[in-house]
Write a structure and sequence with these properties.
The termini are far apart. The longest helix is centred in the C-terminal third of the chain and has 17 residues. Helix 4 runs parallel beside helix 6. By secondary structure, this protein is an alpha/beta fold. Strands 1-4-5-6-7-8-9-10 form an eight-stranded parallel beta barrel, surrounded by six helices. It has a two-stranded antiparallel ribbon with strand order 2-3. The protein contains twelve helices and ten strands.
């Protein structure tokens, strides 16, 4: 029986920049804020952390510094996905050596893979490391929706922990749960679907919103996990306007603006992502002020 890598809310952490470089002092402040809020796991160097524009050296330094700072107080999951299997294997090994407790591995993008290719890709990465691997299915970014049949095969691999499912097909959660053993975990990759996913057998969410509202995201997730769905649904409704604002433009543009408005200046996103449009920042500021 596999031990869950985490349950509840896991924050997909932004990467703070200052003068074009990673701001490690701010990174520690962000990590401390998450731990103080009761968040037990964070993803670094993921999509929200601007992984496409981070160098290999920056990624490994972020992973190492995050684990050194958090110690046993927080599970550090590193984004190590690539559409080149060999590179993903190498980066995953390096992430493990630099302290990562687990890996989040996005499916191959652009070149696209067949079902057999997807299986071989994840099997190879899992074989290259000793720590848990979380599959990341996000068809809106990769152009590929991993079939349930691939999850079923991958679930038999001991260190494949589960999947961050960011498709919008809620019925797929039922199909995954029916096809895979109970210890193959499902985490929502869409904040607004957290409660529905947990109600169908999921174990939580890997969240953008919990950068801004970690206590609320954790409370919502744990209420749902405890079966208190009226309370969880109410929290989901209350958080929905914020979730919508944080995806008004492509992630992580709005969430970095939100962090600055909250007093955590994480800098702008690296190009080709640009600052939040003024009219969108205005509505985001109004929403945060009203909370």
């Amino acid at each position: 029986m596999k031990t869950p890598l985490f349950q509840g809310a896991c924050t997909a952490l932004v990467t703070p920049f200052l003068n074009g470089k990673v701001n490690y002092h701010m990174l520690e402040k962000l990590l401390q804020r998450q731990m103080d809020a009761g968040i037990g796991a964070v993803v670094v160097c993921g999509t929200t952390g601007e992984s496409p524009t981070l160098s290999r050296e920056e990624k490994l330094q972020i992973i190492r510094r995050a684990k050194e700072y958090c110690g046993s107080g927080c599970t550090i999951i590193a984004g190590t996905g690539s559409n080149a299997t060999r590179y993903a294997m190498e980066l995953s090994r390096d992430a493990e050596e630099n302290g990562a407790d687990g890996l989040l591995v996005v499916s191959p993008y652009y070149n696209k893979a067949t079902e057999e290719g997807l299986y071989a890709h994840y099997r190879s990465i899992a074989a290259a490391v000793h720590i848990p691997v979380v599959i990341y299915n996000v068809p809106s970014r990769t152009g590929v929706d991993i079939p349930v049949s691939v999850y079923q095969r991958l679930s038999k691999i001991p260190n494949i922990a589960g999947v961050k499912e960011a498709s919008t097909d809620i019925s797929k959660i039922l199909r995954i749960r029916a096809a895979c053993p109970d210890d193959f975990m499902i985490w929502s990759g869409n904040d607004e679907m957290t409660v529905p996913v947990i109600s169908l057998g999921g174990q939580g969410v890997i969240s953008v919103t919990s950068n801004v509202a970690p206590e609320q995201m954790q409370a919502m997730s744990h209420a749902a996990l405890a079966g208190c769905f009226p309370a969880a649904t109410q929290l989901q409704r209350e958080l929905l306007p914020l979730m919508e604002e944080l995806f008004r433009e492509v992630n992580p543009i709005p969430v970095k603006a939100a962090m600055r408005l909250l007093g955590y200046d994480c800098g702008n996103c690296r190009m080709p992502l640009t600052p939040l449009l003024p009219e969108h920042e205005k509505s985001l500021k109004e929403l945060l002020s009203a909370q």
